[in-house]
């Protein structure tokens, strides 16, 4: 009791003449954590001092309001206007582009005033992201299926935005919307004619190992293959709509087609060929690899030359996906997206994509995540 009384006296002297509610709250926390030894005594003393000094539950709200920047309130008001959410989304896309070019921008910044402007733009982008996270949460987006009867402008936008396997024409798009294929996208009530993120699904009887043949008998579909997912709005980068879309589609397919028991992706590996060439540069193997690969890319009629390097490529690709890290994340962006959302690498597929794009990105190798 004597120790507690002594601590209370010291705290009282420490808090003497303090009238600001916010500063008083923090002073109480500092004093109690410094002078009072046990957790139970700290709790008792906290309650007593709060009652003595009249600190109430509105303090946290006052702190939050005081810390909210003016531009956050402005963005929130803009979001309530017609087409306001779209404008904020586009504005954030521009801010992210500036952030992406920050190395070049910083080189041009000669004064402290220039750097403070860059800092303000970064805080503005963070505030926009915070609002967009709330506006584009799971309950605010709508899952829709794209069919050949969908509005023409939406069909055009979906085909035009496809980034993984570019649509070659109307017949190609029609095939992707066929009976054993599905295409789903998220929309938002403030942007009803804008597909936010798009996923293509093939219904098969086994996990696919290439995109050239995504066909299956109609009565034997047990596997859903997610072979392309594309985000269309750069301003929504960092908002996990892709993960939400895949999980929403998986639930929908499970309810509509109970025979579907396996869900897997057939994913590209962008950047693998560049990474491998960079790591081989300077070695005696480099020139041989470049000659063989360039010949294969041009001819594409015989796999005999490249087949000798098959297991070297596959082993290197496995190392690239599983072991290469940057700041704790997978070096490959697609791998990082799937692995951080709980998927695992199931299989590497040799010659999974023999298009020019697939060969240039990953020497034709694709990967299944499930």
From TrEMBL:
One GO BP: acetyl-CoA biosynthetic process
Signal peptide: none
InterPro entries: Malonyl_CoA_deC, Malonyl_CoA_deC_C, Malonyl_CoA_deC_C_sf, MCD_N, MCD_N_sf
Residue ranges annotated for the Malonyl-CoA decarboxylase N-terminal domain, each copy included: 59-136
Any single GO CC term annotated in Swiss-Prot or TrEMBL for this entry: mitochondrial matrix
Gene3D superfamilies: Malonyl-CoA decarboxylase, catalytic domain (3.40.630.150), Malonyl-CoA decarboxylase, oligemerization domain (1.20.140.90)
Domain Malonyl-CoA decarboxylase C-terminal: 140-370
Name of one Pfam family that matches: MCD_N
MF (Gene Ontology): malonyl-CoA decarboxylase activity
Protein name: MCD domain-containing protein
């Amino acid at each position: 009791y004597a120790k507690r009384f002594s601590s209370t006296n010291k705290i009282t002297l420490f808090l003497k003449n303090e009238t600001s509610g916010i500063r008083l709250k923090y002073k109480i926390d500092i004093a109690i954590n410094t002078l009072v030894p046990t957790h139970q005594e700290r709790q008792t003393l906290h309650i007593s001092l709060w009652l003595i000094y009249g600190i109430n539950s509105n303090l946290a709200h006052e702190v939050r309001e005081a810390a909210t920047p003016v531009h956050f309130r402005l963005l929130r008001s803009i979001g309530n206007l017609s087409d306001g959410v779209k404008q904020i989304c586009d504005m954030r896309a521009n801010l992210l582009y500036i952030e992406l070019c920050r190395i070049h921008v910083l080189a041009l910044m000669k004064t402290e005033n220039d750097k403070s402007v860059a800092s303000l733009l970064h805080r503005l982008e963070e505030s926009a992201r915070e609002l967009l996270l709330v506006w584009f949460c799971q309950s605010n987006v709508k899952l829709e299926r794209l069919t050949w009867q969908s509005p023409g402008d939406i069909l055009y936008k979906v085909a035009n935005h496809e980034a993984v396997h570019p649509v070659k024409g109307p017949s190609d798009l029609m095939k992707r919307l066929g009976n054993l294929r599905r295409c789903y996208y998220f929309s938002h009530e403030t942007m009803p004619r804008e597909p936010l993120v798009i996923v293509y699904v093939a219904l098969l009887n086994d996990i696919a190992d290439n995109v050239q043949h995504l066909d299956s008998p109609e009565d034997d579909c047990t596997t859903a293959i997610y072979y392309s997912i594309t985000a269309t709005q750069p301003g929504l980068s960092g908002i996990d709509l892709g993960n939400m879309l895949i999980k929403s589609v998986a639930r929908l397919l499970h309810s509509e087609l109970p025979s579907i028991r396996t869900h897997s992706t057939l994913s590209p590996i962008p950047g693998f060929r560049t990474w491998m060439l960079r790591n081989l540069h300077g070695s005696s193997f480099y020139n041989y690899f470049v000659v063989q690969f360039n010949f294969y890319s041009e001819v594409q009629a015989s796999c005999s030359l490249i087949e000798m390097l098959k297991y070297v490529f596959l082993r290197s690709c496995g190392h690239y996906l599983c072991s290469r890290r940057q700041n704790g994340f997978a070096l490959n962006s697609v791998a990082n997206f799937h692995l951080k959302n709980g998927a695992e690498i199931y299989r590497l597929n040799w010659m999974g994509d023999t298009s020019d794009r697939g060969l240039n990105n990953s020497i034709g190798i694709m990967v299944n995540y499930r």
